[in-house]
Amino acid sequence: MAQHDPRLLFGLGQLERAEWVEIRWPSGSVERFGPVRAGQTISVRERDDREMTVTEAISKGTLPDPIGAEERLWRKLTVGPGDRFPSLPVVELMRTDATEEVFQTEPGARYLLNFWASYCGPCRQEMPELERLKGSLAEAGIRLIGIGLDTDFDAARNFAELVGVTYPLYQTDPAHLEALFADAVILIPLSIVVDERGRADDAFAGWNAEKLERLKALIP
């Protein structure tokens, strides 16, 4: 069972039913229900009063499709495809005399906004690749900007110098991220593509070969 796909599938072999199924809820309560017939699909929910509701939800032999990785990612954010990207208070990272300003996208410009942190292992792999793509992205009319989430500016600067990036880097206080993230789970590295209207167009988290190909696909 996974957080993003709450289905639980189990086999009964030659048995016609399971006498009972036990559930331990996040609240700590433990409940049983049953019997459950082979091939039966049911929906089980813990109500606010901590009493379990069990209903047969779907006909035998069918299951709903789980949501995909892209939809799961958008659900973690306060913005969705086509939503206006929020403004964020930032400080220019590599200037020691910089003061806080509000970052806003400019009409008519496309952006690739990359969120990172010095303590993020995948960021160490991703950011040099972004540096290599910087020129091609600029030729395609895409402004590459990194927004760091460290609270320690010295650690962030040292990290940026270590990985050797030269594209614009800003820093924002993690306290401001409620404008972007829908809950306390902060996903990094995270890249968001913002279109010419200032609206979120695409988003991808983590770092792997697939994400690199998606970044390259932004370049005609």
Shape: elongated
Biggest pleated-sheet summary: 7 strands, mixed
What are the low-pLDDT stretches, counting only 5+ consecutive residues below 50?
Answer: 1-5
Structural class: alpha+beta
> Order of strands side by side in the largest beta sheet?
8-7-11-10-9-12-13
Mean pLDDT: 84
Question: Alpha-carbon distance between the termini?
Answer: 40 Å
Write down how many β-strands occur, each being a DSSP E stretch of 2 or more residues: 13
Report on the architecture of this protein.
This protein has 4 helices and 13 strands. By secondary structure, it is an alpha+beta fold. The chain starts with 16 loop residues before the first strand and ends with a helix. Mean pLDDT is 84; it is low at 1-5.
Explain briefly what this protein structure is.
With about 220 residues, the chain is of the alpha+beta class. About 20% of the residues lie in helices and about 30% in strands. It starts with 16 loop residues before the first strand and ends with a helix.
